Amino acid sequence: MEYEIEYRPSFALVTVSLEQGESVRSEAGAMVSYSDGIEIETAARGGLFGSLKRSVLGGESFFQNTFTANAPGEVSFAPPLPGDIVAHELDGEVLYVQSGSYLASDVDLELDTSFGGAKTFFGSEGLFLLKLDGVGEAFLSSYGAIHEVELGEGETYTVDTGHIVAFDGSTTFNVERVGGLKSTLFSGEGLVCTFRGPGTVWLQSRSMDAFLSWLIPQLPSTNGTQ
């Protein structure tokens, strides 16, 4: 499966080229276009319980689309927000993905939800993260540009919880406050996630939480008067 990512980092589009018999799976609504000879199948992957768990707990769509090439062709995907796309090839390892950042992947990769522990309850990740494992290519999306950070053994790196895209299963992490209570309340940073290597962490240069915090006060209020 070949691919090309264009228009990075603000309006990224990934085009996946499929040989006859090859398939790629995506989130519902991620498809932009496909060529002649591509067949689409929509299904609740992992059965009713698995799809419901992924949708309710993982924040992803209940249904997923599988595109199969009956003849050589291509399919293009894009995220719903202005942002970037990155490809990451898994070779049997585990990748944890922030809710909303999974775009598409090889059909051989398993996508499930994973309990992140009570520590994630206080971060924007929520209690559950998406878990990808197996062998194949995964495409991750972001709000803003994607920045990749490689961590060595024992090396730590701290990220605002709203800027996390994904991280290797080999890393460990802890959600904590920024400094003391005063810093947490008034610094504008809130909660952060500290990762410890080895492994890779993918960040997004913009935060939806921060954008909404700016946008909502700008919206006109509705008080029921004409």
UniProtKB/TrEMBL annotation:
Q: Which domain of life is it from?
A: Archaea
Pfam families per the UniProt record, alphabetical: AIM24 (PF01987)
Cross-referenced Gene3D superfamilies, in alphabetical order? Mitochondrial biogenesis AIM24
Extract the InterPro entries matched here. Answer: AIM24 (IPR002838), AIM24_sf (IPR036983), Trp_RNA-bd_attenuator-like_dom (IPR016031)
Q: Which NCBIfam families match?
A: TIGR00266 family protein
Q: Quote the protein name from its UniProt record.
A: TIGR00266 family protein
